Amino acid sequence: MKYSIVIPARNEAESIADTVAGLVEALEGAGIDYEVIVVDDASTDGTRAAVEAIGATNPRVRCHPSHNPPGFGFAVRAGFDVFTGDAVAVVMADGSDSPADVVSYYRVLDEGYDCAFGSRFVSGARVIDYPRSKLIMNRVVNFGIRVLFRHGYNDTTNAFKAYRREVVETMQPLLSNQFNLTVELPLKAVARGHDFKVVPVSWTNRAAGSSKLNLHEMGSRYLFIVLYVLLERHLTRGDYKRSTDATGRSRDS
Predict the structure, then answer these.
(1) Please, which pLDDT band fits residue 134 given cuts at 50, 70 and 90?
(2) Where would I find the beta strands (DSSP E) of 42-148?
(3) Domain residue ranges in the chain
């Protein structure tokens, strides 16, 4: 199974080289066939040059200037347009996601699951230097989503997840242009009948650069996409293909 890593990056010159190097080391150490695609989201610093310098010696790493307008969701969608693997993981450019967890996601998909979802808030997870105000907001939002969708998962808003190619195809069309895509992807995957496995993951606050997420601006966008997918789930129940795999595990989430 070829594994694609999509990294949306906007002005991440201070961290992107270390992020990519860590991923390459972990993936090659695990013997995984991979590609790393850094989607340059209209950066005005040396992000693109840093990635191209790595790509000059490692053809599995490339920088793709986003062919969409600026925006986190647009950048991820641009990566989804060009990845060539059988599965894809969305990884943050700031080094907050552990390369070891990227490998763990691959193992989950290799077991036959459609999606690999990490949680920073289960036994075995590790969170370092999470800003308290964002942590409180995170737990409130994720609790509300969990109640609405009853999917038993407590970290829906985490962008760091992995999907088989057919899941990405099933989730189309994607509507979110900004960080609300982090919610649209997993909720659509669940609503459209794909199964998932949750594993504990590590998260470390960025050491360089600044976060591009503005919670005040994103509130209404998150709410819209949550309600949109919830309505879709109720109105189209039974319209998406569901099946049972060889182990008898239901693929209807």
Answers:
(1) confident
(2) 61-65, 87-90, 115-119, 126-128
(3) 3-235
